[in-house]
UniProtKB/TrEMBL annotation:
One GO CC term, this protein: cytosol
Pfam families: Flavodoxin_2
Organism: Nocardioides zhouii
Annotated ranges, domain Flavodoxin-like fold: 3-179
Record keyword Oxidoreductase present: yes
Protein name: Flavodoxin family protein
GO MF assignments: NAD(P)H dehydrogenase (quinone) activity
Keyword terms of this UniProt record: Oxidoreductase
Amino acid sequence: MAHVLVIDGHPDPRSLTARLAESYAAGAGNDAVALVLRDLDFDLTLRTGYRTPQDLEPDLARAQELLEWADHVAVFTPLWWGSVPALLKGFFDRTLERGWAFRYKENGMPEGLLSGRTGRLAVTSDSPGWYLPFVGDSTVKQVKGRTMEFCGIKPTKLTRYADVRGRSEADIAAWIREAADLGAADAARPARAGVVRPLARVS
């Protein structure tokens, strides 16, 4: 069984994104840990880029431990202004440190240091699914390609929950059930072989 880390990037616990993340984590079972970003205490801003060090708060240090522990990382986010909430972007900026999540080789090419992990990106949006690729799908490109896969978390599969405003309660309930099924399927993947885990048990 894979160790699954579920990152809930929505600021509102009442949101559909939060409900989907919770259902996915429940489906993944005992080998899943939910990292609910709205419950963490950290500065969202990378104050000087990488010019000067910025110490990690305890919650972010714990997040790095969980990323090291995980075999599979699932990120749940809404699409806001062609991007993600500041909460999730700040988490990425602060936690995915250069030299820890990625590095640049001597030839200038980037290398992801979280390799060996698979991923899933789940995106909610009011826009219809057909429209987003037509206008560039910037949220998916940013999170899936230029963040998760850039850091070595690949392949990362995409799950889209689109046209949320037009959905019935029956549709929403079906999505919630689907998220649990996806969590169970992702957790059923084999764990990384030969990995010494920093956390023997995470709760």
